[in-house]
Hints:
Layout: H1 7-31, H2 35-45, E1 58-59, H3 68-74, H4 81-84, E2 89-90, E3 94-96, H5 101-120, H6 129-150, H7 158-161, H8 163-168, H9 175-178, H10 186-215
Antiparallel strand pairs: 1-3, 2-3
Helix pairs in contact: 1-2, 1-5, 5-10, 6-10
Amino acid sequence: MNRSRPHxxxxxxxxxxxxxxxxxxxxxxxxxGWKGAGSAIYFIYSFFCHQLPERSFFLFxxxxxxxxxxxxxxxxxxNNLVILRKFIGxxxxxxxVAWSDRMVSMFTSLWVFSLLWWPLRRRxxxxxxxxxxxxxxPMALDGTTHFLSDLAGIGQxxxxxxxxxxxxxxxxxxxxxYAGDAWGSFNSLMRLLTGLLFGLGIAWFAFPYLGEALSGSxxxxxxxxxx
Length: 227
């Protein structure tokens, strides 16, 4: 009889949890003076993320996020992506998490939903391909429009002002909601929401198949009774 072996999900939880958690250790290490360790994490994760400070969270400062003008005032008055991404923070503003808010949302949610899947696996139906596509489309749209907007220059594209959204909603919300990337803005909320849907879709779709491959079938086995 096949028995479900949870060892692989424990290993996944630990290894992927380390991958998800290291970007948060970069500001921690920098804050306590371990700048070499912090710099190493920033460097490693720079290959996986743009690390733009105006689209990142900050720890140990008065604010969770900062606007592009605030970053430019503290760092350099530039829209150059290569220069902006080098800003990791300072003692007054706090220190930047080593990847962007979108990456935090994507991978943290993937880690959490994968761990939640394990105790719920026998009650959850498999997610069909169409369901996966529907959960991934929002991030594809949001990411693509951000990319196209950034082609006009950081801070100068249509996603930086979101005039189209202000027109559609008749300026119902505060100006800070429409413009920029700070916490609570439309852009920040969309990156977090679409990243959350991404993590849910990948975990729900992929982990049932991983479970079958690595743990064996969880279906009950009926043993005939011989009288």
